[in-house]
Amino acid sequence: LDLSNCSLQNLPPGLAEASSAAVLDLTENPLMTLPNGSFLGFTLLQLLAVPLPLGCPGGNSAWEEVTTSRSSRLCQGQRNSCNSSGEPAWLCPENAACAPDGPGLIQCLCDSPFHGYKCLREGTFPVLLFCGVLGATTLSLSLLLWGTQRRKAKAP
Fold it and tell me: Taking every annotated instance into account, which residue ranges of this chain make up the domain EGF-like (predicted)?
């Protein structure tokens, strides 16, 4: 994706839609900062060119090689931020595994069959029970309101 020399002062709002990009060129733009999380989901990004005043997102440790030229900085070869075992104990809960989520970013994915807050719930979400209770409550409230409000609708 070539966004070089586009006079960008900020990253475009739709940049997140390009998360499958492998190469991104932002050089020759008057960018001052790259907001945290700008490259969230960019797991396939292997080459990022940014203006020289900016650092590589995630820091130099998030990239295999960082080189500079006259006017740009090249960030090459995105590293997996999860450690070699794939699960940093201090970042992810017990029933979750670490997965990369962009340069210097990770996400914790619940192991099957766990789900919910901090992957503490086991099994699947009770969809039938949830929909049944929601439907019954909605029907009951609708009937109650219809019964109590219909005489006001009939009044001249």
Answer: 108-119
Is the residue at 133 inside a domain? Answer: no
61: tokens are: 């440790």
Domain of residue 43, residue span: 15-83
Write down the pTM of the prediction: 0.71
Number of domains in the chain: 1
pLDDT in tens, the chain (156 residues): 999 999 999 998 889 999 999 999 999 999 988 888 899 999 999 999 999 999 999 999 899 999 998 889 999 999 988 865 544 556 788 899 989 999 989 899 999 989 888 999 888 778 999 999 999 999 999 999 998 888 776 655
Alpha-carbon distance of 92 to 107, in angstroms, equals: 8
The answer to whether 51 touches 11, Cβ cutoff 8 Å, is no
The answer to whether position 102 is within a domain reads: no
